[in-house]
Amino acid sequence: ASIGPAMAVALLTTLYGAVIANAFATPMSEKLARASSMEKTNKSLIIETISGIQEGMNPRVLEQLLSTYLPTGKRPVQEG
């Protein structure tokens, strides 16, 4: 007779856990993954820029190298 209430509590907590995971935890982890990816890209961009400047790279070459980090529609138009 005491198994019934205990089983109800166990199932209810399992349901709550599933709801919380799908409603909050999964979207939060996806948002954090996107933010982490953007941060990694930004740090890579900074490292490329600083190392190019330190190596005395031609500014036009450095500009072309760094434009690969921009989305295709926002890249500078190539002349010539």
TrEMBL record:
* Keyword S-adenosyl-L-methionine on entry: no
Per the record, GO CC terms?
plasma membrane
Gene Ontology BP, a term: chemotaxis
Checking InterPro entries in the record gives: Flag_MotA_CS, MotA-like, MotA_ExbB_proton_chnl
Statement: the UniProt record of this protein carries the keyword Nuclease:
no
Q: Which family does it belong to?
A: Belongs to the MotA family.
Q: Can you name this protein? A: MotA/TolQ/ExbB proton channel family protein
**Annotated source species:** Candidatus Thiodiazotropha taylori
Domain MotA/TolQ/ExbB proton channel span(s) in chain numbering? 2-40
Membrane topology of this protein: Multi-pass membrane protein
Where's it found, cell-wise?
Cell membrane
UniProt signal peptide: none
Keyword set, alphabetical order: Cell membrane, Flagellar rotation, Membrane, Transmembrane, Transmembrane helix, Transport
Looking up Pfam families in the UniProt record yields: MotA_ExbB (PF01618)
- Look up the domain of life of the source: Bacteria
